[in-house]
Amino acid sequence: MSPRTNAVLETFSNFTVLLNRVLAWVDFLVHYISGYLLFLFLGGLRPQYHTRAKRGYTPSVIITGASQGIGLATTRHLASKGYNVFATVKDEVELAKLAEDITDDAHKHLAPRIHFVIMNVLDQSSIDAALAAISSTVSKSPNSPLIALINNAGYCMISPMELTPPKALHDIFDLDFFAYVSTIRAFLPLLKQSSGRVINVVSYGAYINPPMWAPYAAIKAGLEAMTRAWRFELIPFGVGMTSIRPGWTRTAGIGPKISTAWRGYSDQIDKGAVGVNSLGEVVRSDYPVGHREKEVYSKIMHKWYNMTMAAAEGAAQPAEAVALTIHDALSDVFLQPYYTVGYDALLGQMVRDLCPESLYELSMIKTFL
Ligand SMILES: NC(=O)c1ccc[n+]([C@@H]2O[C@H](COP(=O)([O-])OP(=O)(O)OC[C@H]3O[C@@H](n4cnc5c(N)ncnc54)[C@H](OP(=O)(O)O)[C@@H]3O)[C@@H](O)[C@H]2O)c1
């Protein structure tokens, strides 16, 4: 893509962020009015103000996968808004990288509010160690109770369901679904003490279910359904739970890493490469792939290649836009069941909500087949 096209795409993306903020404020207004009316007259959810940072009160939040992308942008944004952030990363190497990234000149002033903690969300002993360290710190700071866990660590996979090997499926479910459950269970006792919140970063893949996204859509839809049901179970404990539905977002995953994976995919399409993921890996299959399957799936994968490249090179929203929405969820007086961010996500949501299913299906067929 030429630098000029890239600049046009970026300008468009920045404009949509602004539009998104305007829509968010309109939504807030409607939601506040209805929230207070329901609370006053019908026994709806009680308004909560203690999750907002203010002078002399710096509530603590934990974020998983803070080394880059949405996690890093959210760490910086929340610290800039007066929160005490436990930025968790999977190992020592990432910890060193994060310490460098956070303390660059533009963000040096945030360093006192950011605490780096190792937490590999796939390893229960690592979660337990992080819990012990964080509990001990917050117990000594009455002005910084732990008021939120932000589950963000995860990746996406674009691969035909028929050919995706079980191991690739298990791996993505482990990080994008089961690890969310493990961290919530671990930190729930602390969140109950503070009437805190769980914020799960899901995806618009939860409700837009295009071809090649079967595994990813299944996980994100499962996460969102879990969030909506678990949310009710937690109301008696004063704990809130919500989902964030980002659309395409420019991050390392949906950028350099997925580009690397696409190169590997196209080089090895005749040697078992069937898909890509945003960890930068090629999904490989041992199944025999017939001529027709190769023809159909390669054609759809090619369309995805064009879309992800356009997203990575400018069309997608910046990670900071998602950080703003996570802050909205954190500070909302009435926690909503989900928050959508990104023009593609909002548009997709509108099409699914307002159009007949047959029209939605037609749009998918025309786009991909
Ligand atoms: N970008 C998008 O377009 C988009 C759209 C919708 C939803 N989302 C969702 O948003 C979330 C973040 O996406 P992103 O694009 O910001 O991803 P990203 O740039 O690839 O970052 C993912 C983060 O997860 C961390 N992580 C991976 N394995 C981990 C583990 N075992 N323990 C702890 N941390 C681990 C990574 O750490 P390392 O660097 O150490 O691996 C990294 O910090 C994901 O849940 C994704 O599904 C993204």
From TrEMBL:
Pfam families: adh_short (PF00106)
Keyword terms: Membrane, Transmembrane, Transmembrane helix
Transmembrane segments: 22-45
Source taxon at top rank: Eukaryota
PANTHER family: 3BETA-HYDROXYSTEROID DEHYDROGENASE DHS-16, SHORT-CHAIN DEHYDROGENASE/REDUCTASE FAMILY 9C
The family this protein is said to belong to: Belongs to the short-chain dehydrogenases/reductases (SDR) family.
Protein name listed in UniProt: NAD(P)-binding protein
The organism of origin for this protein: Exophiala sideris
Taxonomic lineage: Eukaryota, Fungi, Dikarya, Ascomycota, Pezizomycotina
